[in-house]
Amino acid sequence: MTITFAREEIQQTIKMIHEENLDIRTITMGISLLDCGSEDISRMEEKIYDKIAKNAGQLVAVGEQISARYGIPIINKRVSVTPIAIAAAHLNTEQMVRIAKALNRAAREVGINFIGGFSALVQKGFTGGDLALIEAIPQALSETEFVCSSVNIGTTKTGINMDAVLKMGKAILKCAQLTADQDGIAAAKLVVFCNAPEDNPFMAGAFHGVGEPECAINVGVSGPGVVAKVVKEFPEADFSELSNLIKQTAFKITRMGELIGRAASKALNVPFGIVDLSLAPTPAIGDSVAEILENMGLERCGTHGTTAALALLNDAVKKGGAMASSHVGGLSGAFIPVSEDAGMVRAVEDGALTLDKLEAMTCVCSVGLDMIALPGDVSAETISAIIADEASIGMINKKTTAVRVIPAIGKKAGDRVEFGGLLGGAPVIAIHPFSSSKFVNRGGRIPAPIISLSN
Amino acid sequence: MALSLGESNRAIITILGRDQTGIIAWVSGRLAEYNVNILDISQTIVNEFFTMIMVADLNPANIGLVDLARILEKEGNDKGLQVKAQHEDIFTFMHRI
Asked: What is the ipTM of this complex?
């Protein structure tokens, strides 16, 4: 057998992993709970717990073995489940909270760090189960550790359910209030989506859609540090060259996801779903999407030119990544969370990056307004209006957008919040002082947009 | 080139660190003990910085890759060396289609 590795290739791989924070961000196992229904709530809790324990029992151990075999860190092992508002549509609010706690027990048992799917899809209206679940979210998230929740309030095909937008503004504020002593951590586990993907492996928005198989492995890659390094090494490259460099790097990063996904699928005997080829930053120095944009030649992320830089980055990542994987899905794009990205945090602290600029940036990248701390006196209606703006961007542009904001109770713009771990910490960002209350209280639905007259 | 994914049992062992006497002797000795066959080896020294890349076959071995990687990493660490043993697929996947 011939030996076909070039020394430079081997050294490059090792450098990417050890110096530039290349890692597999998450292996997420999607599990259908559609067969776990029962009139008896205790029986239903038991069925859900058993099904997760049975399917995901080996997930963490297998993840660690694969990580050791290939010498690449796999940061998170997680589980997503069928949206609970569908799987448990007959339950009331109090029973929904019990299901959340059953999910939390199962997550603890199998050793994962998040379980997603305490979710509802209400883009066109509510079922009884949807209403019960949304009502249960604040209590469920503040009384559990691992459970993540998401609610899809709009799609390009259906328009936006503004009644749901109003409810979610209230739910986010309530989450923050119930966990005010932990800087509103419950709100960090809640995402409001427009055009939510059904195979997203990233938290807090992961759920296992109803079109998905019984069980599937989805992988999310990372690697902003690797891209930042490449961009930095070529300060003179013009935009065509820059795009090519990013494409090549994204290809290599995504190949790692493809490898780990195939290996995990084989070891667990579960079908391989998709690679989500996102650039997901962490609070670690050098693992920042903002740093990539700054390395392109912007003094600070958020200044004029940032949207263009991000558009180029996001497109090049997709082009490179799409070549590298047999199935790409999920969110797939550059993430721009604030608290999870040291460069974004610095940009907000320096006054370079504002909420309005972040909103503009979400027009050209994945995913949306993410991990942003709002002043504690923000009203539920203002949060709803922020959600409505962001969902409109997703609806009109036929893309996923999301809002994950954390009202920092008792704090004002410029103060700091700390969530710890991968969630990081961030300065509280300023919001507009003018009311949107009458607008969001109109109720009803924003109609689906026409998509042929596309200007 | 076919992507093996688990069918091959070859590992890439890399050593980085300050040059010192006996690095190759140590690693090849340990591999012989575990019956790991060395297929290819290359080393360079730039400014007293030692780099070695080795391709090893674990088919005849009496140790698994995960354990071998752990042992070499720990012993290398004691000598001030960064030692990695990784399945070849990580390099194949990253650099080949």
From this structure: 0.84
